[in-house]
């Protein structure tokens, strides 16, 4: 694990982790995660909280075998009825996911495999806020063996563990000539977005490159059937694209533009 330290490395090895060891997240690791959360909450106007050792939240999924030993989570809390905050939640919580990945922790976004009411009992949700989603976090099952794997092995697992839409599908608004003419940073951004988590692996985001002003745009594809979590998945995909492309900044929103720096 020692050889990978960059966010792009985290993107290249992250997969959804559904089976965990029973070993708790220790105080030191929790403190480091909290330190990562503080600046993110400050700039995002979200209130992402680490909640440890509450297996009741996942009792049903753990009992059915869908999950194993899920007990800790990031509670993603943000302002009520705010579409842009939903997108920011995807963007910034995925940023925490990548930090956790670099620390050898496993993560899983959950919209369905949790007890939301039980989860809300263990975090702060003000009257003006709601609990959007959670991300399970913990030591992956057999984590010592996991940590012994090389970076290349972990990349290979990521590359092959699930189906993905193709680069052409991810850039559906473009034709072949436009794809060929797009700069390397655009291709690298899309390739990082192809590795992003999305609800039910629907991969509902497409990207396009506009040579006239050297910008990229991200779009929600209504045909992907992900209307419920599309804004969250838009935020996640934008974060992956930004890391993959090297440097630059997005405007929020469906159709928001990316300026590469
Ligand atoms: C918003 C969101 C909600 C999700 N909800 C669940 C869930 O309730 N249960 C589950 O097992 N996986 C859930 N996932 C994980 C996805 O199924 C997973 O990310 C997707 O299949 C892609 O696989 P990967 O994360 O390994 O790349 C969710 C992912 C996202 C982004």
Nutshell version of this structure?
41% of the residues lie in helices and 18% in strands. It is built from 11 helices and 8 strands. It has a 4-stranded antiparallel sheet with strand order 1-2-4-3.
Keywords:
261 residues; alpha+beta; NADH Oxidase; four-stranded antiparallel β-sheet; 11 helices; globular; binds flavin mononucleotide
Secondary structure layout:
Elements: H1 7-13, H2 27-44, E1 47-51, H3 59-64, E2 72-79, H4 83-102, E3 106-110, H5 116-120, E4 129-138, H6 143-148, H7 151-160, H8 167-170, H9 176-181, H10 184-194, E5 205-210, E6 215-220, H11 230-244, E7 248-250, E8 257-260
Antiparallel strand pairs: 1-2, 2-4, 3-4, 5-6, 6-8, 7-8
Helix pairs in contact: 1-4, 2-4, 4-11, 10-11
The protein binds flavin mononucleotide.
Flavin mononucleotide (FMN) binds next to strand 3 and helix 11.
């Amino acid at each position: 694990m020692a050889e990978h330290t960059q966010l792009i490395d985290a993107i290249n090895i992250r997969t959804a982790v559904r089976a965990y060891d029973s070993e708790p997240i220790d105080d030191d690791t929790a403190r480091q995660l909290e330190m990562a959360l503080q600046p993110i909450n400050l700039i995002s106007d979200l209130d992402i909280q680490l909640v440890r050792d509450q297996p009741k939240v996942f009792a049903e999924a753990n009992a059915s075998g869908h999950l194993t030993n899920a007990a800790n989570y990031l509670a993603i809390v943000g302002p009520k009825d705010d579409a842009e905050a939903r997108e920011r939640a995807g963007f910034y919580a995925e940023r925490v996911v990548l930090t956790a990945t670099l620390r050898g922790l496993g993560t899983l976004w959950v919209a369905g495999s949790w007890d939301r009411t039980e989860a809300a009992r263990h975090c702060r949700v003000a009257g003006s806020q709601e609990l959007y989603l959670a991300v399970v976090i913990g030591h992956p099952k057999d984590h010592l063996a996991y940590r012994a794997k090389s970076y290349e092995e972990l990349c290979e697992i990521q590359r092959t563990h699930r189906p993905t839409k193709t680069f052409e599908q991810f850039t559906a608004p473009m034709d072949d000539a436009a794809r060929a003419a797009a700069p390397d940073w655009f291709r690298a951004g899309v390739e990082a977005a192809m590795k992003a988590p999305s609800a039910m692996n629907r991969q509902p985001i497409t990207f396009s490159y506009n040579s006239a002003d050297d910008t990229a745009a991200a779009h929600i594809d209504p045909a992907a059937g992900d209307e419920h979590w599309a804004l969250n998945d838009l935020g996640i995909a934008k974060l992956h694209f930004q890391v993959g492309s090297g440097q630059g900044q997005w405007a929020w929103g469906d159709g928001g533009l990316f300026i590469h720096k």
